[in-house]
Amino acid sequence: QLQACGGGSVQAGGSLRLSCATSGRISSINDMGWFRQAPGKQRELVAEISRSGSPNYADSVKGRFTISRDNAKNTVYLQMNSLKPEDTAVYYCNVGVPWAPRVYWGQGTQVTVSS
């Protein structure tokens, strides 16, 4: 129900843009966000955005990543600039509805940043 794309391999300092489109079967979408999981580490929140457009970022990505959404397209984006090797992870998009926060997950897209 969530299709994420835009991952890839870049050198440190480079940029990538992730996007995640939801299927029409999900209605009343509330918060949308991105999580990531590096090998051997727990999944962590990267950024989240409310339906009204209010963003929330992990401290580690503030000033480098920008989350946005298009409510008409039910799509969430993550613009990642000044990428660092420690940003290497599988990135998952996530969508919640009012009665079930963070309930839907995308399949994950790999981001690899080389030094």
Protein architecture, described:
The chain is mainly beta. It is built from no helices and eleven strands. It has strands at 2-5, 8-11, 16-22, 32-37, 44-49, 55-57, 65-70, 75-80, 89-97, 100-105, 109-114. The strands form two sheets. Strands 2, 4, 5, 6, 9, 10 and 11 form a seven-stranded mixed sheet that branches. The chain has a four-stranded antiparallel sheet with strand order 1-3-8-7, with no helix packed on it. The radius of gyration is 13 Å and the shape is globular. The model has no long low-confidence stretch (mean pLDDT 94).
What level of helicity do the residues show?
under 10%
Q: In percent terms, what proportion of residues is strand?
A: over 45%
Tally of contiguous helical segments:
0
Structural class category: mainly beta
Describe the protein's topology:
Layout: E1 2-5, E2 8-11, E3 16-22, E4 32-37, E5 44-49, E6 55-57, E7 65-70, E8 75-80, E9 89-97, E10 100-105, E11 109-114
Parallel strand pairs: 2-11
Antiparallel strand pairs: 1-3, 3-8, 4-5, 4-9, 5-6, 7-8, 9-10, 9-11
